[in-house]
Structures are given as C-alpha cells and as structure tokens.
Amino acid sequence: MQYGLFGINTGLCADPAIMLQVATRAEAAGFESLWTGEHVVLPDPQVAPSPAAPLTPMVHPSTALAFIAGVTNSIKLGTGITLLAQRNAVVLAKEMASLDHLSRGRLIFGIGAGYLKAEFDALGVDFAERGARTDEYILAMRELWTSDQPQFAGRFVNFAGIQSRPQPHQAGGPPIVLGGASQSAFRRAVTQGQGWYGFAMDVEVAGQAIAGLRKAQEKYPRPKALGDLEISITPRAPLTRETLAGYAALGVDRLILLQAGRSRAELIAFVDGTADAFF
C-alpha cells in the first residue's frame, strides 16, 4: 500500500511556509505522494454540492506543485483533481508537461469532469458539455505529449503544424488518474487512464465503486499500453488498522489521506503520527 497526503495547496497549507514544511516532512516520513485539490472559484454562499466555504484558500495546483518540486527530491506530485473540461486543453498540456519536466517525472495527473455548475458558469464553459470535453481533451493532450508532429481534429480542439516543447519527462506523458464515481468516470478510467481515484469513501462505498469499475472493465476494452488499473482512495474517516485491512482486501493500491490539524504543529504531528502508525 502506498500513502499519499491530500490538500497540500488548501486551508492551512495555502500558506507557503506551511506548504513547504508539510511537503518536506511528508517526504522524509515516507509518504509516496502529495495531492492538491482544485476549484477555480467556489459558490458564495456555499450551497450543495459545493465542498468548501467560499473563502477557503486553494492555491492553483500546478503553481503549488512546482513550488514544492523545488524543495523535494522523490515524492510524487498529484493533482487531485484537475477539472479538465474547464481548461484550454493545449494550454493545460503545456502546463502539465512543464511541471513533469521540472520535477523530473514526478507528476501524477489526476483529472475529472467537474460537478459545480456555478463554477462552469463563471468560466464560460457549457456545463452540459463537460463529459465530451473531458474525453476529447485527454486525447488531444496525449497527442501533444507524445507526437513528433502533433495534430488533432476534434469538436473542441483542433491543431496542426505546431510544436509544444518540452514534452513531459515521463515517456508517454504523466500517468492519468480519473476521479469520480459515475458510469462515465468508470468508463474513462478503464479506457483512457492508468488509474482511478475515489474521494471521501469508506470501505463499503469504495467496494461498491470498485465493483462498478470491474463491470466497466468487462464492458469496455482496455488498451494494453495502460497496464493494470491502479486504485486510489481518500478515506472518509481517519485511518485505522481495521479500515486499512478493509481497503487492502478490496485491492486498493494507494490511500490518499485527508490532512488533520488546526495548526502547523498539529499538521506536522499528523504527518509523523501517520508514518509511525502505518508505514
């Protein structure tokens, strides 16, 4: 089991000094990866399904991860998750390739279609098109990351006769991890991703989602080049030995733990305590 730490760019960790201290301490403690959250904007006032209060600070994911990459050496850097349909695919491909290049291949590119209509409205992106955009953007970005003469003709993205360098450090581009528990998310994970990410799931809910993934694997062909589907879960509650055994029995490969603490000292104590208890 690998262990990640979620929220390295949010809340207390939006403070640059705390962000760096938690990141370096997590690397020293043996965490495999650090993960950002993302919302470009949040509804004000907060209404369901918005996950956070309007004034919750969230540093831009690639900005935070590049900042962290400069003071760490081996810990992986995950976007958990980037809301792909809200972006320009060509710009985002350059952004992520640059991050992977500068970190020497440590990026895990977690993505999702998004679910807050107010956020899409503020960005001028059609909420109803988010699934179609996500499917197409993955293909367009991989084309830019891998082709010597990139070209793409789609509904939302069109380019030819261009270059975008540097390409990612990782051959084929950073691994793509699909978030979400919808049937569309399961299909994307199976057909286009190296991994799948379930957020805030207890063992029972994680088991139901993984069963959904298995059904999708029976229905949709998986390209051999993607390898085995890696499963990541953020537990809903603090981890215990009992719940760890439950996730392991489901075949979970990585647990991305929610940070706990109301101060810098409590965050560091959580990092150290988690390592002592589970690593």
Brief overview:
The chain is α/β, with parallel strands linked by helices and 279 residues long.
Structure characterization notes:
The chain is globular. Strand 8, helix 6 and strand 9 form a beta-alpha-beta unit. It has a single domain, classed as TIM Barrel (Alpha-Beta Barrel). Helix content is about 40%, strand content about 15%. With about 280 residues, it is an alpha/beta fold.
Per-chain topology:
Blueprint: E1 2-6, H1 16-29, E2 33-36, H2 61-69, E3 76-79, E4 82-83, H3 89-102, E5 107-112, H4 117-123, H5 130-146, E6 152-153, E7 158-159, E8 176-179, H6 183-192, E9 195-201, H7 203-219, E10 230-235, H8 241-249, E11 254-258, H9 264-278
Parallel strand pairs: 1-2, 1-11, 2-3, 3-5, 4-5, 5-8, 8-9, 9-10, 10-11
Antiparallel strand pairs: 6-7
Helix pairs in contact: 1-9, 2-3, 3-5, 6-7
